[in-house]
């Protein structure tokens, strides 16, 4: 039961990271065109990267240490993106939750 709850939380953290990239893009871009490119393009690019290397059925699976490192980069940059929009506490909270979930995911090997 706990493993299903943890998998759901992991999925939510991944979705929140994509939302964070979109939020950053729409807030940092100058002009409607750039806002659209960054707000939609950045999450799509990250989702493509995730599917290529980090998803459970990744096209190009990577070893566990590299996968953990790449997930830390994705979550860390999502946190930096939110921080850049002025949401400092939210950025820190997301990073803490993402790291805890990443630790639990790898310790419990779900």
UniProtKB/TrEMBL annotation:
<feature type="transmembrane region" description="Helical">
    <location>
        <begin position="90"/>
        <end position="108"/>
    </location>
</feature>
<feature type="transmembrane region" description="Helical">
    <location>
        <begin position="68"/>
        <end position="84"/>
    </location>
</feature>
<keyword id="KW-1133">Transmembrane helix</keyword>
<keyword id="KW-0472">Membrane</keyword>
<dbReference type="InterPro" id="IPR021214">
    <property type="entry name" value="DUF2568"/>
</dbReference>
<dbReference type="Pfam" id="PF10823">
    <property type="entry name" value="DUF2568"/>
</dbReference>
<protein>
    <recommendedName>
        <fullName>DUF2568 domain-containing protein</fullName>
    </recommendedName>
</protein>
<feature type="transmembrane region" description="Helical">
    <location>
        <begin position="36"/>
        <end position="56"/>
    </location>
</feature>
<feature type="transmembrane region" description="Helical">
    <location>
        <begin position="5"/>
        <end position="24"/>
    </location>
</feature>
<keyword id="KW-0812">Transmembrane</keyword>
